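Chapter summary example: a protein plus flavin mononucleotide.
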Amino acid sequence: MNFETLVQRRYSVRAYQQVLPSDAEIKAVLDAARLAPSACNRQPWHFYVVRSQSAREALSAAYPRPWFATAPLYIAITIHHDEEWVRTSDGHRHGIVDASIAAEHICLAATAAGLGTCWVCAFDVEAARKALPLSSDEEPVIILPIGYPEEGAAVPEKNRKTLAEIVTEI
Ligand SMILES: Cc1cc2nc3c(=O)[nH]c(=O)nc-3n(C[C@H](O)[C@H](O)[C@H](O)COP(=O)(O)O)c2cc1C
């Protein structure tokens, strides 16, 4: 699959088959995250593979939507605030930028493997903290459900602004 096709095929999958991705597929998407760039190469991220029934139920409590619970697996991405790069000119912290790049690497790698994902940030942070074994400087930032899209699922039309609306040449 070339890059243009990959980007076209990635979409937010909100219905999954009850089939667990293979260990090799999970490793491939995690390795795509590992190779993502990060500010000053700090790699302030951690990836929790949430696979057991009890852990999936605990994490689902942080985002109680019926579709979310259909995912056979989640990758919860956290950042360690102790490790993130901070821009000196304005103090802007870059951990969430780094985690976001890694998350999209996962989404694209999953798409390349025929899997579906969906970014989820609208979760209850305290409930996510309870579901994950976090250290004191660690913040959960993105949850990615991962699995095979339900049978017959099609890529929806992309509803996006035009280039003319979002690009300015100066
Ligand atoms: C930072 C971010 C947070 C998001 N959070 C959620 C979420 O909490 N729940 C959800 O269903 N989708 C969430 N999405 C998915 C977006 O709604 C989706 O990417 C957007 O509507 C474009 O659709 P597409 O991904 O199918 O191309 C999020 C996406 C991003 C990038």
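Key point: The helical segments are 3-9, 23-34, 53-60, 66-69, 95-112, 125-131, 163-166.
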